[in-house]
What we know:
Blueprint: E1 8-13, H1 18-31, E2 35-38, H2 40-46, H3 49-57, E3 63-69, H4 74-82, E4 87-91, H5 96-109, E5 112-116, H6 123-132, E6 137-140, H7 144-149, H8 159-165, E7 170-174, H9 177-185, E8 190-193, H10 203-222
Helix pairs in contact: 1-3, 1-10, 4-5, 6-8, 9-10
Amino acid sequence: xxxxxxxxxxxxxxxxxxxxxxxxxxxxxxxxxxxxxxxxxxxxxxxxxxxxxxxxxxxxxxxxxxxxxxxxxxxxxxxxxxxxxxxxxxxxxxxxxxxxxxxxxxxxxxxxxxxxxxxxxxxxxxxxxxxxxxxxxxxxxxxxxxxxxxxxxxxxxxxxxxxxxxxxxxxxxxxxxxxxxxxxxxxxxxxxxxxxxxxxxxxxxxxxxxxxxxxxxxxxxxxxxxxxx
Length: 229
């Protein structure tokens, strides 16, 4: 049974080979992260066996397969479970039929299904619809290409509206420890970090600081505080 106790810190291992991924996963595990994400680039370039490689090396940590599924989704969810993953992602801009199929497959094989709200025209509305369709969690995600084109835009701008309308856990993609702490303060139960921290000269130290900042922010939130330091 997947533990959804917040705050969950998910590390996106967005590299291209298993050889590059395992040291990052090891550093993340030592830093105290909650979930290991086998990122879309890793699955695309290394194949679904990368999911199993990470899951076998770190059996004590849930592994998320970030397929970003769009169509024909059942086979991806089933394979995620076969490889040892606990979670798989489907895109919110996929059809309702695909989301329903992903959820059904997940229930059959014991894989939680998370919806990535990337590029959804109305994030809050689509988040509510995803919940109606039975997903286990929704993620607010301002992507790398969007950030490159509009670096001044707040990656958490859509988070408050998603949190307000959802009863399932809400996750948020972040780019720094400051983002992670602020996301938790804004109501996120799950925070995701990959680049740039997985490219740091000391990945373990960078991720440990992130984990600590997130946990401190959650403790303040739980205590009713709001000021970030």
